[in-house]
Specification:
Helix content: 10-25%
Organism: Paractinoplanes abujensis
Shape: elongated
Strand order of the largest sheet: 3-2-5-6
Low-confidence stretches: none
CATH class of one domain: Mainly Beta
Largest sheet: 4 strands, antiparallel
Mean pLDDT: 83
Protein name: Lipoprotein
Number of helices: 1
CATH superfamily of one domain: Immunoglobulins
Strand content: 35-45%
Order of helices and strands: HEEEEEEE
Length: 101
């Protein structure tokens, strides 16, 4: 005989099995952007966390490269293998080498 308790228990198992029982933790992120000057050549941009590349891209002269990185991580920004700057953990969105405005 079906009772409300058995129906509720069965529904709970179905929801748990379908993934409704819990959410994945959300990692807060911020945007880090690097800009190149119009007179520069094509450049390779890398964002590194503790020496490990977490984002990279190729940027045309006068262009920019942006990526989302975890707020909790310090990230070093490199352009053509040279350190441009460090974005400290806990900071907000950052633009390096970009014109103001």
């Amino acid at each position: 005989m079906l009772t409300w308790g058995r129906i509720a228990a069965g529904l709970g198992l179905v929801l748990l099995a379908s993934g409704c029982g819990g959410q994945e933790p959300v990692t807060p992120e911020r945007t880090v952007e690097v800009c190149t000057a119009a007179g520069d050549a094509q450049a390779k941009v890398e964002f590194r966390r503790a020496g490990t590349v977490v984002a990279s891209g190729s940027v045309a002269a006068g262009g920019s490269f942006a990526a989302s990185v975890a707020v909790a991580d310090s990230v070093d920004a490199y352009v053509d293998g040279m350190l441009l700057g460090t974005v400290e953990a806990g900071s907000a969105d950052v633009r390096l080498g970009c014109p103001a405005g």
